[in-house]
Amino acid sequence: MQTEKKVKDIMTGIFDYPHIPYWFSISQSIRIIRVSFISTRKYIEPVVILVFDEKYNLLGSLSLKEILKGLEPGLERPGGTAKTDEVPDLPQPNWEMLFSEEAAIRSERPVSEIMTPVSKFVEPGDSIKKAAYVLLYNELFLLPVLEDGKKLVGLVRMIDIFDALSKDMVKE
Fold this sequence. Notes:
By secondary structure, this protein is α+β, with helices and mostly antiparallel strands.
């Protein structure tokens, strides 16, 4: 009988992701992404930056989507992120006004205002099934792995969960 895989078996190291302090500006985070991912053509899915405090405690993560929405907050879906089958009639924005001078001003805001705070995590000894549940239920792509609920020891990504679960289900 095969032993159930644990999060520690598939987690990724935290230093595989760029990281910044929470007081960095959105524009500084953009520079980090451009240097770490885009110019090197090194895309680690999902493309996120980890956000830490002064004591190197993980506070949250910052994705490309969050950065773009932080630059243009008017692009939020009406009614939050709820998805419906009905597509509302949306006013057409002035395309020339998007991502212009106002966005440049907003880019000086701290990333702490737009990041996704860490609220969910798993432990290294948790099953990958639990991690899959937490990721899917909370619509996350990245989940911190904390030892004893305190010390950050890694990250588990949706792609790692998918790979591990699909290998068990689909025999090649």
